Amino acid sequence: RDYADAGIYPRDPFVTVDIEGVGALVQMGCDRGRKQRPNIKLGVCGEHGGDPDSVDFFEECGLDYVSCSPFRVPVARLAAAQATIRRRQS
After folding, report:
1. Which of 5-14, 44-53, 61-70, 77-86 is the least confident region?
2. Which residues are registered as beta bridge partners of 66?
3. Are 47 and 11 in contact (CB under 8 A)?
4. Whole-number CA gyration radius for the chain
5. Cβ atoms within 10 A of the Cβ of 39, count?
6. What is the helix (H) or strand (E) element at residue 65, kind and residue range?
7. pLDDT at 1
8. 40: left (phi over 0), alpha (psi -120 to 50) or beta
9. What is the average pLDDT value for the chain, to the nearest integer?
10. Contact predicate 43/62, CB 8 Å
11. 3-state class of 14 per DSSP?
12. How many Å apart are CA 26 and CA 40, to the nearest integer?
């Protein structure tokens, strides 16, 4: 938490993906993977898969699924549905 309190990261990177750092790598991996294999299934597992802001980012990247701990599944499903609706409306 010291990095969040010190302003190094706006949010805890163990909870929400740092879009400019790790997120850029996720996007790069997704883009390169799809370039080589357009039908490849890409996803993320872990606690980031249950964070609404991270799920929104993963949907924007084009990931196919998220996986998370059981208690986070309802939040992840709602976040995924909301992210999909937002993308379709824009």
Report:
1. 5-14
2. 44
3. no
4. 14
5. 5
6. strand 65-67
7. 62
8. beta
9. 92
10. no
11. coil
12. 14
In this prediction, residues 21-26 reach a mean pLDDT of 96
33-50 pLDDT, tens digit per residue, is: 999 999 999 999 999 999
- Structure tokens given for 57: 């980012």
The residue to which tokens 């990261």 are assigned = 9
The residue behind tokens 């379709």 is: 88
Instruction: Outline where the chain has alpha helix (H).
Output: 2-5, 22-36, 52-61, 73-89
CA 75 to centroid of chain Cα atoms? 13
Question: Which contacts (CB < 8 Å, 24+ apart) does range 26-29 have?
Answer: 26/57, 26/58, 26/61, 26/63, 27/61
The values of phi and psi at residue 63, to 5°, are -65, 150
